[in-house]
Amino acid sequence: MFLRNYWYVAAADTEIGRTPLARTILGEPIVFFRTEAGEPIAFEDRCAHRHLPLSMGKLCGDELQCHYHGLRFGTDGRCTRVPGQEHIPQGARVRTYPVVERYRWLWIWMGDPALADPDKITDFHWFDDPDWGAKSSYLHVEANWQLVVDNLLDLTHLAFVHGTTIGNMALAEHAKVNVTRAPNNVVMTRWIIDQDPPPTFAKVGKFAGHVDRWQIIDFVPPAFLRLDVGATPTGTGAPEGERVGGIGMRNLNAITPETETTSHYFWGQAHDFDVKNAELTNRIFEQIRTAFLEDVAVFSAQQRNLNIFSDPPQVDIAADTGVLAARRILSRLYDEEQAGSRVAAE
Ligand code: FES
Ligand SMILES: [Fe+2]
């Protein structure tokens, strides 16, 4: 199941340059490059002639030349040159996709181009906001995108999967959880009051005693999860909105389906303390990366089982409240999109 009329993260801005980059998104092979002026371009990665991937070709100025018989395609996807003939055959063009650079990522619109409004790009300003230190990265994941969404909406797993990094038992046993739902949004707020800080927080926050810790997970369809996490010394008023004397971070996630069983996982970590300290930014990032690799092992193992067995149905538990709310939104949006494209086709 893919939702098409959305902006997805296609690449880090630094990945796109003068060498064509091939990447499959929502099952479609796409090739990315930049013009000489630096403008990002996305084509379907399939030559109009004999369907060789255009990513095997090379750039000639702002035109992409196919590796096989040398057809060239301009930035609008139209063929501009066929070696050995004057006439450009009708239909000699490749599909182009709307792309926008924002927050140090390249975003791509996978649906009806007429609906591609850049104002609809999900906010990830923490990556280029001078008030935050941040670093982002990419993981290729052998799992369906919804397994990654599920994982990020269920933070009780921190106690089990991440016991040596960002989790401790206090999370599973002592947390107060509140879930707010809107038509296209789920926010899960979890407070862990008067408990030991987890190992990562203890290191970077230099806490002497117990902390009040929050995790606020903001889910926006199809697959954006922005986690507001932090801790302050217990009793200093964080639950009432006073965030002083502690640390605040954002864990930022954008999952882009590659195929039904693989995903591009763009993520990063931002912090609101000592923001110019690149060494600290890196240290925090590396700790979270260690934890994320633990997650990748989990959802790729789930996917291997899902590839083999489709029943019995999965059992739900109380900790799945956020997961189930998000799944309901996604399946409603999918139905709406399918109904919309049926209407458009009629
Ligand atoms: S396949 Fe591309 S030019 Fe022939
Ligand atoms: Fe995790």
Briefly summarize what is shown.
The protein is α+β, with helices and mostly antiparallel strands and 346 residues long. The protein has helices at 145-153, 158-161, 169-174, 199-205, 278-308, 321-345; strands spanning 7-12, 21-25, 28-34, 40-44, 58-60, 63-65, 72-73, 79-81, 99-102, 105-109, 133-141, 176-182, 185-195, 211-220, 224-233, 247-257, 263-271. It starts with 6 loop residues before the first strand and ends with a helix.
What labels describe this entry?
single chain; alpha+beta; binds fe (ii) ion; seven-stranded antiparallel beta sheet; about 25% helix; Naphthalene 1,2-dioxygenase Alpha Subunit, Chain A, domain 1; Rieske Iron-sulfur Protein; four-stranded antiparallel beta sheet; binds FE2/S2 (inorganic) cluster; 2 domains; globular; about 350 residues
